[in-house]
Each structure stands twice: as structure tokens, then as C-alpha cells.
Amino acid sequence: MTFSSSLISWYEVNKRDLPFRGTKDPYLIWVSEVILQQTRMEQGVTYYLRFIEQFPDIRSLAAASEEEVLKTWQGMGYYSRARNLHASALEIRENFGGKFPATYLQIVKLKGIGDYSAASIASLAFGEPQAAIDGNVYRFITRYFGFRDEVGSASGKKRTREKANSLMDKNQPGIFNQAMIEFGALICTPQKPSCHNCIFNTSCYAFKHKLILKIPVKKKKVFIRKRYLNYLVMTFPERGKPRVILNKRSEEDIWKNLYDFPVIESMVRLSSSGLRKTDEWKRIFHGKKPSVINISEEFRHILSHQVILATFYHISLEEPPEGFDIRLPLDQMNSVPLPRLITRYIQKYFQG
Fold it and tell me: Out of 12, 33, 150, 162, which one is annotated catalytic?
């Protein structure tokens, strides 16, 4: 049997039963690929079902506001993915009459769709022979053939894609791609691969040379930035109901177009007295007498190249300070899209 036929035979017996598997609907394939790029499969399936229940097709996604999309996406993180999904749905509606483009070269031009997702959609939905190279496939191929290019390098991507395309069953490109991904996810795993159960172990370079944990060659470690966020949870009475001030993040930074609380960012961890001495605190509360009724524990929130260390100061005011226009009833904080860090705080200190 050829490499491709052996792999596909293994896949037909061992593939997982997933709700987006077997469909040829490019929209459903697209949504599943975007969600699963940075999400564990167990969580990803739940998020996928939630998302397509709210937006079952391109038309419904394009008709929604960005805020509605971000609210549905809440909890998944990497919110640029949701914004790109929405932007591409609008482009498909405007430039393709609401019909998903049918070729790799058209698909890859859509906002937020890279080589991997475009190849996956093109092969699964339209039968175009394009190898889809995700982390699972890259690991499987580099181990099997003994490639030593660094993860993420242009040479590594090119060599791996060329090899996958040469191995592909051109009559079943979608099935081949799914089988490659599944094999990497279930057998050729990062830390404890099932080499003794692998149907390719007699011909695998890394297994024969005891290099399984040294291939793929890892990138050099990147600098992880620490950010100290001191959140001001300012509440005040209005028309007999407690209200809270929120902030919509519009700058080119984390959580763009999501909501959080007004924040004072510092270079180091600040004490309560240290925070009160900052220029930002003095500017916000000039002429006011804020009463700090609670200081939270420090919340640690890890992003790809950042660690957020956040402390929340619940501040009671007689009236809101100037310069803050977004004021919601306290019990409606969850009605807008929020970063996971903010929902963790709300759940612990307002709904606990």
C-alpha cells in the first residue's frame, strides 16, 4: 500500500466523530477551522455548536453586528479571529453574492484566512488538491522524514507543504488532509507519541534515530511581556439603580472592540496607596472623594506573548467622574462582549 492509502485506511477506522466532519459546506468548515486553530478540541466542539446555532450561514453572520459576533465568541479568546470572520462574511456577501468562493486562490485572499485554512476549505468543500499544513501535520511530516528546519521558518513550511502535496491522494484530497491532521492529533502527538502503535514506525526517521522529542526543531523562546492592569470598577447610583462605568477598547491592542473597565496600567505592581499617587488617578478623581470598598486578589491571565496581572478596585461614587460615557446597570455588565479576564472577576465578586 502507498503512504496515502495506508493513512486513509487508518483514518477510516480511527477517526473521531465530530459534528463538522463529513460536511462539504465551506461555511461550516471555515468556522470549525477558525475556532479550532487556538482551542482544544473538547472546548472547540462546544463553541462551534454555539456559534453556528447563532449564525448558521454566511447570510446570518454578515447580517449581524460586530458586537453580536464578539458576544457569541466570548470565552474563546483571540478575538481578532471573530472580527476577521465577520469582515470576511461581509466581503463574501458584497463581492461573491453571498456564495463562498470556490478556489484556494480566492479563499486565501479573505481576511483572516491563511494557507492552512484556505487549503482545508478548498480540499474538503471543493475537492481541490491543496495540502493543509497545521501543527499536527508539520510535526508528523518532519518526524517521518527527519526534516530539521525550525518551526515557523519559511524553508520548513515550503518543504513540508511540497512533501505533503507529493504524498496526497489527488482523488481524495479532503480525506487525505483530515487523515494527516487526525494522525498527528491522535498518534504523532507532541510529548508522548504512540510510536509503538504507529503504522509508519518502521520507516519513520525520528523513531529509528531516537529523535522523536527533538523534531520538529523548536523556535527560540520569545520574550513574554508582563503588564500590570489596575482596573477601576466605578459604581454609582442613578435613577434608583446602581450603575457601573465600562470602557470600550478601540486601540490597536489586546481585546479590540471588547469592553472592560477603565484601567490604569503600570510598569510594576502597585499598592493601593501607590495607585492613588498616579497622575491618572488624580486626573480621574479630581475633586471627587472615591470610596474603595473592595480590592480584588490579583488575577493572572496568560496570552500568547503577554502575561496580564490585574487587580480590580471596586470604587463607590456619589456621581460618575467626567469623561466616561458608557454606563450600564450593574446587573447588565454581561450584556456586552467582555474578555475572559473581566468575566472571571464579575463571576467571583458580583455573582459569587
Answer: 33
